[in-house]
Specification:
One of its GO terms (molecular function) is holo-[acyl-carrier-protein] synthase activity. The chain is α+β, with helices and mostly antiparallel strands. It has six helices and ten strands, in the order αβααβββββαααββββ. A hairpin with a 2-residue loop joins strand 4 and strand 5.
Length: 213
């Protein structure tokens, strides 16, 4: 898939107010990292360094500013003051979105492949598995739910700083509109059980993209 095609996929998921950036991992120049960024991956293998650099280059494109996005001790990206954003990597590409700090924002990119059945019990709730039974290409839709949960997790983490499993979110899909809803199944302060995060998804060119903004 080309960068232009991925950009079109992002435009289907995010509103115009959300700035976007894309970088091919193979073309990422590690020398473009700020020293404070490079220090986080200086001991990593070259492939990991390029992937990390691609994410930061995509983030700078999304921000429209040449500023560092450092890695915190918990490995989460720390965006410049006044800004919020999210980074994802898959299939040789890095994508990023950015906006103002008050915005809830998240992105996840997955290769369009069936979610292995052996992880369904870990990833999917009973209700999600039941909803999938009547859908064609069940493994693909299970992957969409997986991506939606990854995306929702990225959205909540800067607010809660809490780590939890897939069971905390229950996702419903609206295939006719490309909308998903991720509902908290228990309190994750400052979110309460029953709170929901709504996003969009799109499938194309061998990828599944989910986003919340």
């Amino acid at each position: 898939m080309s960068g232009a095609a991925l950009s079109a996929l992002m435009a289907q998921v995010f509103p115009p107010a959300v700035a976007r950036g894309i970088c091919a991992v193979a073309r990422a120049d590690v020398a473009r990292l700020f020293h404070v960024e490079h220090s986080a991956v200086k001991s990593a293998v070259p492939a990991r360094q390029r992937e990390f650099a691609a994410g930061r280059i995509a983030a700078r494109a999304a921000m429209g500013r040449d500023l560092p996005v450092v890695m915190a001790e918990d490995r989460a990206p720390v965006w410049p003051e006044g800004m919020a954003g999210s980074i994802t990597h898959a299939g040789g590409w890095a994508l990023a979105v950015a906006g103002t700090a008050e915005r809830l924002i998240g992105i996840d990119l997955e290769v369009d492949a069936a979610l292995p059945a052996e992880v369904w019990e870990t990833v999917l709730t009973n209700s999600e598995r039941a909803a999938l039974r009547d859908m064609p290409d069940v493994g693909r839709w299970a992957r969409v739910i997986f991506s939606a949960k990854e995306c929702a997790y990225k959205v909540q983490y800067p607010r809660s700083n809490q780590v939890f499993g897939f069971e905390v979110f229950e996702v419903t899909l609206e295939p006719d509109s490309g909308v998903f809803t991720a509902v908290f199944q228990r309190d994750i302060a400052p979110f309460a059980a029953g709170d929901c995060l709504r996003g969009r998804y799109s499938i194309g060119g061998g990828f599944i993209l989910t986003g919340i903004a």
